[in-house]
Amino acid sequence: MRQIWIATCLALSLLVGQANAADQARKAEIAESKAEVLEEKAAPDGSKVLPTPAQLISKPQAQAVDPIGEEPLDGAINCLARSIYWEARGKSDTGMEAVANVVMNRVGHEGFPNTICGVVKQGREQGACQFSWWCDGRSDDAKEDESYAIAKEIARKALNRQLKDRTGGALYFHHRRVVPDWSKEYIRTVEIGEFIFYKPAGSKAK
Q: What is the dihedral angle through the alpha carbons of 79, 179, 47, 86, rounded to the nearest 10 degrees?
């Protein structure tokens, strides 16, 4: 009788474990699908489309999408958060938000891809990346948990269309300590912290 009871308990534990695993997988799929929906909504015309309440990515969902060092850069939150982190970690929240603005402004504009990851990874094939961290040959894993958590929260807000565009529609930026040749060809929109932002004259969406 005792053996039957033990066997029954083991079977129940196995079933509970399988159910929990299936539930976690389902939650991960939901979070990823929401990120994809928001990215598709953002693509056609920049910041015009707002997500519905059902599409909003919550902070817990955003934190679950991309555990540091465990997921590839294949999702909107992942790509955007790491761009914010590597371009502006250690800077003010305003500066980090401005970097997110540039990525979001590029989506769907002439000369840029229609997805977040497409924008972040643009140019790798030609050996000249738009964001150097992506193809510098170094690990893309975030090293500072606190800064990355801030970057991911900003990415979540950006994808949910909850960030104000602080850059005046900028598509480019550089650190104030450098003066790239391309900066002479564009209109300066604003200076935020250590960054200077630009947009082309007459830039337009696809």
A: 20
